Amino acid sequence: MSAALLTGYCDRISVQPGDTLRFMISAEGVSEAEVRIVRLIHGDENPIGPGFIEREVASPCPGPLRVMRQYTQLGSFIEIPDPDGRCLPDGSFTVHAFIWPTTPGKGRQGLVTQYSATEQRGFALGINDAGRLALWLGDGTAVSEVAADTPLLARDWYFVAASFDAATRSVTLYQEPVLNSYNSLLSPIVPRSDSCHLSATVGVMPARLARPALFAGVHDREAPRGDFVSALFNGKIDRAGLQARVLTRRELDELRAGAEPPREGLIARWDTTAGYTDHGIGDRLVDTGPHGLHGIGRNRPIRAMTGYNWRGRDDSFRLAPSQYGGIAFHDDAIIDSGWCPSFEWQIPEDLKSGVYAARLRGGGTEDHITFFVRPRTPQAKIAMLMPTASYLAYANERFVIDSPTVGLITGHPLVLADLDYALAAHPEWGRSSYDHHSDNGGVCYSSYLRPIMGLRPKYRMASTGVPWQFPADMSIVCWLEQKGYAYDIITDEDLHRDGVACLKPYNVVLNGTHSEYYSERMMDATEEYLAAGGRVMYLGANGYYWVVAFRDEEPWCMEIRKLDAGSRAWQAEPGEYYMVTTGEKGGIWRIRGRTPQKLTGVGFTSEGMDESRPYRRLPDSHDPAVSWVFDGVDNEVFGDFGLAGNGAAGIELDRYDLGLGTPPNTYLLACSEGHSDAYPHVVEEVMFNYPGLGGTQDFQVRSDLTLCATTNGGAVFSTGSIAWGQSLPCMDADNDVSRITANVIERFMQDGPVRF
User: Fold this and answer.
1) Across 434-448, 552-566, 690-704, least confident range
2) Do 323 and 342 fall into the same domain?
């Protein structure tokens, strides 16, 4: 791996001619970069395929471009603008909150603060290095700490408070568990010894700080990075407040019992349950106190989380908003790297729709910042739908390195490349929805406003050593180029925003190899397109699987909640199954009554990555109504080659199943055979575990090739395999998989209804 590093991202993933695209670049060990815009044709360097192909675009580019290291604020927190300095009274005060710490022993963490670690000014209610509740007071020269005499326990709710008496310089700490049968790790029947009520005298008077107050961190500064937030908190904070006086023990007991803060001396009462609607809530923290000290979340603190008073009966914030005051914070969350733009590029009006990248070179290293150009006016009969929602879901997956069982799951030892080492060295690039935060909470937000290694054309999944997601989809793009088909590029982002209008201009729409993550708008649009006579070629597997949601104004960030069904790397906590973005239930589409089989004829049945297998034709393939699919194919067994495991059926598989909604008029053309026991039957269909669920024994472990007519002359062709697309460009596209796909696309792209 080169000692130098160039990387970056752009502010939009889907653009049209005339749009201006901004590129954010960071460098290590190199000060200048050569920039070229390139059209990407193929990403896999495997010598049995076409190899890596890119074509430079004639365009003015900065060069050599001056580059430098850019820094990222990692971790979620809430910033509360305080221009009048109300959050640090001149005299006495009390600060209080309900908290659910998840890593109390990890180190210093801020809870509710108006404090700078660098300037040593202000106050901070937090957790100290010993995992104990603490209050820090700084006068600009010295800092005093008063800490509880008992540590906090992880994943239990507490009511905590600290008071400062300016007249006596006395600090009082209050720490009491708040447990019921549902809200915490431990039961209320367990004897407790973690209450704390103590007082101490300090030698400092906290000095004012001209900075916002914070939830879940403190202000800090270092050269050359500048200002940032440190002491980031892992856990939840529920309803918090600030008073300009010392509250009595009785008043604190009443707050712990759920009472409203007393009006006397009230500065702020941050109601973490305020703002919930049927359509979710944004990042705004509402202050119901007299001064309107509202906060704004940074790096997407997670809402719609259970609070200290959750009673276990209602499983959605929409049903009992008062029980959903928990806001979850993570010290490794990232939504926007926040880098400064390095250069801009206006998309030429005559630029052809396609997959493009800004190629960076310098210091012996190279990177590609990928983006997609959609035509302003549709130009072709074929649309290639790039599954950008799935790219987000897998963005910077670290589980392949972090998980000790990944080799058992995939049947492969790790195959690490430079991009994997770079990712491991840069936690600030964030994690995928297949990863856990540092406190073991699942990652439920993913954004493209950060470097994403999987959006590089040469990326190979470390657990398999084969192209995955975007570079795998480039094999389909390459095949379209090889065959000379005119096509337009569209993305999931376009489909979610524009609905069926995104698909209507096209006679046929091609999916990528793994269109796994779909919003409700995307599902509805696809169904409406097919019902109106559209045609879809589903050239992958495990598609239309997970429910996701986007805010209209922030298409770069996607929300996911993984529940108690489906192949999942984590599971949402009880009561936290509904996405705050839209208020809809997360999980897989199947548990909401929309199985993939109902839409495409096939649905997820197995995954395995040791090897891919060929298909065998079935009797339906010889039916005169559909035998045209196999024109030019002489072999009964086909697809024994490919860039993904040396076969066309592999990695993940979908099957035909009338009991799960496969339309009765569906033709079952071919199925794969001979999969190993590294391909187990998919978990959502296993009610009891027993021997015999692997590929050598379970007939349901297979990939099915299907064709189905829809209303008004529409149709769906499904391959049931992720590996199919990576067989297409082999042998210069002169192969049986290519012939079958070409036969279908040429029938589907014709004007008028498709009849068979």
Assistant:
1) 690-704
2) no
Helix, strand, coil percentages in the chain from 3-state DSSP, rounded to 5: 15, 35, 50
Question: Do the domain assignments include residue 752?
Answer: no
The last residue of a domain, from among 275, 299, 329: 329
List, for residues 518-560, the tens digit of each pLDDT value: 999 999 999 999 999 999 999 999 999 999 999 999 999 999 9
Kind plus residue range of the DSSP H or E element containing 641: none
Alpha-carbon distance 683 to 693, whole Å? 10
Residue 86 belongs to domain spanning? 77-329
Helices and strands per DSSP (H, E), number in the chain = 10, 42
Instruction: For residue 310, tell me if it sits in a domain.
Output: yes
State which H helix or E strand residue 54 sits in.
Answer: strand 53-56
SS3 186: coil
Q: What angle do CA 187, 193, 198 make, to 5 degrees?
A: 130
How many domains is the chain partitioned into structurally? 2
- CA distances to 331, 511, 705, 713, 753 from 750, in Å: 53, 18, 22, 11, 8
Helix (H) or strand (E) holding 553: none
Give the pLDDT confidence of 633-679 residue by residue, as tens digits: 999 999 999 999 999 999 999 999 999 999 999 999 999 999 999 99
What's the CA gap between 543 and 603, in Å, rounded? 7
Write out pLDDT tens, residues 421-433: 888 899 999 999 9
pLDDT at 325: 97
What phi and psi values does residue 638 have, to the nearest 5 degrees? Answer: -145, 165
Say what the pLDDT of residue 694 is: 87
Q: Which residues, 6+ apart, have CB-to-CB distance to 540 below 8 Å?
A: 511, 512, 513, 514, 515, 652, 719, 721, 722, 724, 725
CATH number, domain containing residue 272: 2.60.120.200
Q: Do residues 301 and 350 both lie within one domain? A: no
**CA separation for the pair 53, 486 (Å, rounded):** 18
Which helix (H) or strand (E) segment is 41 a member of?
strand 32-42
pLDDT band for position 17 (cuts 50, 70, 90):
very high
Is 369 part of a structural domain of the chain? yes
Do 150 and 59 sit in the same domain of this protein?
no
> 153 and 19, same structural domain?
no
With respect to residue 130, please indicate whether it lies within any of the assigned structural domains: yes
Q: To 5 degrees, how large is the angle CA 442–CA 443–CA 449?
A: 175
Point out the least confidently predicted range of 245-254, 448-457, 463-472, 514-523: 463-472
Q: What is the CATH number of the domain that holds 19?
A: 2.60.40.1930
Check whether residue 28 and residue 125 sit in a common domain: no
Token pair for 51: 């190899």
Residue 62: its pLDDT value, please? 75
* Type and span of the H or E element at 442: none
Answer yes or no: is pLDDT of 698 > 70.
yes
Report CA-CA distances (Å) from 248 to 63, 163, 164, 241, 351. Answer: 66, 9, 12, 15, 70
User: Nearest-CA neighbor of 235 among 313, 176, 169, 153?
Assistant: 153
Tokens of 696: 């050598």
The answer on 238 and 197 residing in a single domain is yes
> 329, 362, 391: which is the final residue of a domain?
329
Query: 13 and 56: one domain?
Result: yes
Q: Measuring CA to CA, how many Å separate 300 from each of 80, 335, 437, 506, 542?
A: 15, 7, 13, 37, 28
Q: What letter does residue 516 receive in the DSSP assignment? A: -
Q: Find all residues with CB under 8 Å of 445, minimum gap 6, and list them.
A: 300, 302, 333, 335, 557, 558, 559, 560
Q: What pLDDT, on the 0 to 100 scale, is given for residue 410? A: 66
* Whether residue 92 sits in one domain with residue 24: no
